[in-house]
Design brief:
Length: about 220
């Protein structure tokens, strides 16, 4: 796991406290989860006890994330969630927080976990720098990949939701794959992506998620 040194608090950054009295690059919660990650899968961990595995990214192009879940087949509640990542402090902190959120209070159901959004992770972390929003999206994708793997293993293909068909805007019928293709074709801003896809026009509530996906794909393919 790539533990990179985090900036010290007190420096000017792009995450600020709600009352505007403090500004820093990373919140204290982010730093806590980076220096003390929860539910990390150590090298000698027994992965055979888990019945769902998710993976996203590649070490060759940046962040890579692997997650292991233990799911109760009867209730479909997440009993345990472990992870490993080769990535920055934000990726580590986001995944650590995600592991807490899906297992607290006897564990989320898979349906509840699917409904969780990257914004929910960021809110619990106290915010992330704008250029690091994609780290919570990365975690969200790995979680969804693990959920699909669980349904694949138990023979319920009808419950598998492929990322390419994940609906972002039901009004314009734009998926995350459509946004990815728009970025690959040269759209680098919300305005240019909207011009290509019409996403969010008449449905502004989806725009925060769209902006995060644009950042994720832009950094993934263009650095």
């Amino acid at each position: 796991m790539n533990y990179q040194q985090l900036p010290q608090s007190g420096k000017t950054g792009d995450v600020s406290s709600k009352d505007g009295t403090k500004s820093w690059f990373y919140s204290d919660i982010v730093k806590d989860h980076f220096f003390h990650p929860r539910n990390f899968m150590h090298e000698d961990g027994d992965t055979s006890i888990y019945n769902a595995i998710g993976k996203v990214g590649s070490p060759a192009c940046g962040d890579e994330l692997r997650v292991w879940m233990k799911v109760d087949p009867k209730t479909e509640c997440i009993l345990d969630f472990r992870w490993q990542t080769f990535g920055c402090g934000s990726a580590i902190a986001s995944t650590s927080m995600c592991s807490v959120m899906v297992t607290e209070n006897d564990g989320m159901t898979l349906e509840e976990a699917r409904a969780m959004k990257p914004q929910d992770i960021m809110e619990r972390l106290g915010g992330l720098p704008a250029r690091k929003f994609h780290c919570s999206v990365l975690c969200d994708k790995a979680l969804r990949d693990a959920i699909n793997d669980f349904y694949r293993r138990i023979g319920k293909p009808e419950k598998i939701i492929k990322e390419a068909s994940r609906m972002i805007d039901p009004i314009s019928k734009v998926t995350d794959h459509d946004i990815e293709e728009a970025v690959l074709e040269g759209a680098q801003t919300l305005e240019t992506v909207q011009a290509k896809t019409k996403v969010g026009i008449g449905n502004p509530g989806v725009l925060p998620a769209v902006e995060e996906l644009i950042r994720f794909y832009r950094e993934k393919y263009f650095g």
